[in-house]
């Protein structure tokens, strides 16, 4: 068979593989979530496997089972603790009288409108009150608890199937760390088996450090934001909701913290509309901004260099460019997947294309 025929067969195989992944996208999603959970739980499994009580050692089945139970316990504790707080906060937001809230901000809004009209090129009037009523109403409508939980009830059956499937797959990935590797190796030619094994082993080590670090970063950022906002005067339940959102948004590089801070500011204003704007809301927003800025500085100095640079062995500028490119191509989702995808690409390039100087330079730290 000539070279063109080989390329055609390879291309056809990739297309068919892509179609299979698309058709069974739910199963692929379950497997990928299980892989991430197994990365997070792997240090616990390794610790248990290394424990010895006299001559008895933890079997891999028991280690995997205990780790899976711990993972689900953490998730159950998370939902039992935070969902009631989120529901309560959403209920408070849904009860806000938007028109009355905007009316309380009448004086500062008039000054802003006058400033906009004064420096506007066309001199047209600017109705800030109408803009605020429209946008706040949309935001409050999102917080309608009955709508949220009504939609959740309709998906409980699918959620149960998903949870069972993810748990089942995760257990075996925890039990046998080479299971995913063996599943991939059977799809490649025998002559490339050694290289593929080496690639998968490197990817596993790098991504395991990345996801474990990311998991702890979300927890620490959320914790620091919650403590900081509680200190500056927000109710604890409100601070927890904002801290939780800020921690999760921090997964999105660079713009995630901005989204989290803006969300926190909106909640801070919405839950304190009964106090004076100049003597109450403005100082509160200043203190909140200080909390978010302080947490971000700590995150940038301590957490992100460890996760985004050391864990995947890439230069911070390199990571920044990759994230910006991914964001321009696929938006926020692209930014979230940029670092894991780039890590996989670098490892594959080092193994199979290391003869090129550019690739050699780019992957020298892996």
UniProtKB/TrEMBL annotation:
Top-level division of the source organism's lineage: Bacteria
Record membrane topology: Multi-pass membrane protein
One biological process term in Gene Ontology: transmembrane transport
Compartments in which it is found: Cell membrane
Cross-referenced Pfam families: AI-2E_transport
Transmembrane segments: 7-24, 30-49, 61-83, 148-174, 210-234, 240-270, 277-298, 318-339
Any one cellular-component term (Gene Ontology): plasma membrane
Keywords: Cell membrane, Membrane, Transmembrane, Transmembrane helix, Transport
Family to which this protein belongs: Belongs to the autoinducer-2 exporter (AI-2E) (TC 2.A.86) family.
Protein name as it appears in the record: AI-2E family transporter
Organism (species): Labilibaculum euxinus
């Amino acid at each position: 068979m000539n070279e063109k025929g080989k390329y055609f067969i390879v291309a056809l195989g990739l297309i068919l593989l892509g179609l299979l992944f698309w058709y069974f996208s739910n199963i692929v999603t379950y497997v990928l979530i299980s892989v991430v959970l197994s990365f997070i739980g792997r240090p616990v499994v390794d610790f248990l496997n290394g424990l010895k009580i006299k001559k008895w050692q933890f079997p891999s089945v028991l280690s995997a089972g205990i780790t899976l139970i711990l993972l689900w316990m953490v998730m159950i504790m998370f939902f039992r603790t935070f969902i009631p707080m989120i529901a309560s906060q959403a209920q408070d937001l849904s009860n806000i009288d938007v028109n009355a809230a905007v009316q309380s901000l009448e004086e500062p809004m008039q000054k802003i409108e006058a400033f906009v009209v004064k420096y506007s090129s066309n001199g047209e009037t600017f109705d800030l009150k109408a803009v605020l009523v429209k946008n706040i109403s949309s935001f409050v409508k999102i917080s309608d608890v009955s709508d949220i939980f009504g939609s959740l009830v309709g998906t409980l059956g699918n959620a149960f199937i998903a949870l069972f499937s993810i748990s089942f797959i995760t257990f075996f990935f925890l039990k046998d760390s080479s299971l995913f590797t063996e599943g991939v190796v059977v799809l490649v030619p025998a002559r490339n088996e050694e290289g593929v094994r080496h690639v998968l082993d490197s990817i596993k080590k790098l991504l395991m450090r990345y996801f474990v670090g990311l998991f702890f970063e979300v927890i620490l950022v959320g914790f620091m934001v919650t403590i900081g906002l509680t200190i500056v005067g927000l109710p604890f339940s409100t601070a927890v909701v904002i801290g939780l959102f800020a921690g999760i948004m921090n997964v999105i590089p660079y713009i995630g913290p901005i989204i989290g801070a803006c969300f926190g500011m909106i909640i801070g204003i919405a839950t304190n509309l009964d106090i004076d704007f100049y003597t109450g809301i403005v100082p509160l927003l200043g203190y909140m901004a200080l909390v978010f800025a302080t947490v971000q500085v700590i995150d940038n100095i301590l957490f992100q260099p460890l996760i985004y640079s050391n864990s995947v062995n890439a230069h911070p500028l390199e990571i920044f460019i990759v994230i910006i490119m991914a964001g321009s191509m696929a938006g926020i989702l692209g930014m979230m997947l940029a670092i894991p995808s780039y890590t996989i690409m670098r490892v594959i390039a080092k193994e199979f294309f290391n003869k090129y100087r550019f690739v050699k330079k780019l992957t020298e730290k892996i």
